[in-house]
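Appendix B, example 12.
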Amino acid sequence: MNDRKKLAFVFSSSILVVLIMSLIEGVFQPGYLIKSLCKVVLMLGSIVFYSFHTRKKVRDVIHLALRLPNRKLVFFVLGVYLFILAVYFIFKSHIDLSSIKESLLVKEHLSKANYLLIFGYIAFVNSFLEEIFFRGFISGVFKETKKAKLGYLYSALLFALYHIGIVSHWFHWWIYLLCILGLVVAGGFLQWITEKNDNILASYLTHAAANLAINTIGILMMA
């Protein structure tokens, strides 16, 4: 597979994944288990398909190096967790908490019996899936074809578009706009962490910490 075909594949497959997941999220609205299975099949399927046709190991495609994080990264990840909690307590008066809780209970079929399991999945499994897809696979292919900067921008924008529908009805409009900008910045930030550590594991731990902080807020609302 030449560079042109690689870029065509990663562009078309990533757009298709985001469009299908947007339809599932906004139109079909199945339970969280079905939605998660669809996401796993679509994202992992794209990566495995690319791996097969380029004859590269999946670990190389997603740029995963199996080594322990250093102390600086551990403290940084902890800081991300605490920072998000602090932002929540500062801006919570501008967030429609009742709407978020209703969305979690009805749309995601969340209950007090299953919310810890779902929140655990979001923090540790879902964040890994998104990192290997957006930062490992998409940005990695662009980098491999000597178009790294374009790949960083594209993956960050796609990362934001993928998440917009999930949070669109939770906030006042101006916070919603900040969320869009924040998601683009977050995508670029996670990419920077990946490049700095030369390992997708670094952005995964950071993403997991962010999701864990959001889930902590969810647990406070569910209590």
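The longest helix spans residues 115-144. The chain has a mean pLDDT of 87.
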